Amino acid sequence: MLHAPSENRDQNLPNAIQAESESHPSKEDTTYYNTGVQYFQYHLSSNKTIMANKGKKKARSKKRATQQHQSSNDFDECKYYANLGCHIANVARCRVEAMKKHPWLLGIEPFEPNDYVPEDIAHIPEVAMNDGEEDEYGDCEMSLTLTNIKDTTSILFVTVYDVDLCGADGKILTSGWTYTTTAKNTTTQRKCTTFIVLCPPQTFVHLVTLVPNQTIGSDTERIPITSWSQIEIESDVQQWSFHPNVKDEHPHLLHFPFHGNEEEAVNEDQATKSYQCSQSENGNLTHFFHGNYHAIDFACPIGTPLYSAINGIVVEVKDDGGGGQNKNNTTSTNEECDEIKEVSGIAARNLFHWNSIMIQSTDVETSDPLFLEYVHIQTNSCAVKVGDSVERGQFLCRSGSVGFSPEPHLHMAAYRSNGVDAATVRVKFQRINNDDTRESGLDSADAQSFLPRVGQWYNHNGLVEANSEGK
Ligand SMILES: [Zn+2]
């Protein structure tokens, strides 16, 4: 018996996607899908399918360029993360728009339960592979499809290892890397491509095809790829969670986390250094669900000193690399096995192995608590421990790239509680020097504080003009 679509379908989606990811994932919801053993032939017969029209490709990309230019901020988040191997597709907001915005997408198709015998519906995998059946256009391609047959919006993280993938625009998608460091301190890197897709209820998203004539295997023995079953694919599928109050803002102001108490005296350069905001609130990569919505990412080299943004007490420290993982994700008790110490990069499996430190503010009323979390920090870099009191500007730890992290960065998120399922709250940064705001047209509140926006550079005084980056 199939359920009618719930009201979730009409839910007013924010501009960017929302989902479960970086910092507060719930393990119970996790589905690791080894699609190597699944096979599903999708239907292309429906005339409702929105397919990429190869003939109209040029006209479309021209129009897209014009639209992007109108944006107030030229920073293209999707392009930025695509260059790092993470390909974002928000299909939930508007399907036609999604096809325009992501020219590599092969197509979006409504799931039609009546096309299936009920017993087969239960066997539709969340990541489905077409091994090259000829379609209505006469094309014979090996394609990858995400399926959401549920009545709720899903967020899918899918990682494809070792191979090259091709979009509807005929371009090979940029791949990225995932890194594994073992307890013996050897780091290995592996090529992979990751898709982050917000998929509306009862929808199939046809992602990409496999670039033809590829081989797989060791250097000495290469085998031609003829089936998706030869390729390692992993995915994490979760129900998208809407933030209950996206306008929630805590009145307390934060100290800029790259600026230490001692620095102005010790090192003028360090004090005025600026950092690019690589994802702001409601960001397209991972800041689109209740536990991440208001988080701010700053790109920064591994080892950058991080300072406390509040006066408070350390309530949680996790800087062991999320270790204890077996290399093959099995529960083998073989003592010879070299355990994984930490992971980094864009593999979906990295979503659950981050480092972090959490501070509870002691400057706020107990009725209005504030918890601040620093994520992806460098392993074994914490200078403080649980229970320690810390001051604004006190050295805490160093930045890193541990967990699901396309590039080294600091992920900062604030909460009104330290519960694992807490929703984020917006908190602004306090300008050190109110006279030197550098931003024109600021009202009195904005002269006191600033909220970083994606693509822009900041220091402890707020926005830094693009041409005067004090990097
Ligand atoms: Zn983040």
Automatic annotation (TrEMBL):
Residues 1-10, 21-30 have a biased composition (Basic and acidic residues). Gene3D superfamilies: Glucose Permease (Domain IIA) (2.70.70.10). Residues 11-20 have a biased composition (Polar residues). One of its GO terms (molecular function) is metalloendopeptidase activity. Residues 1-30 are annotated as: Disordered. InterPro entries: Cell_wall_metabolism_enzyme, Dup_hybrid_motif. It comes from the Eukaryota. PANTHER family: MUREIN HYDROLASE ACTIVATOR ENVC, PEPTIDASE-RELATED. This is Peptidase M23 domain-containing protein. It comes from Skeletonema marinoi. The lineage of its organism: Eukaryota, Sar, Stramenopiles, Ochrophyta, Bacillariophyta.
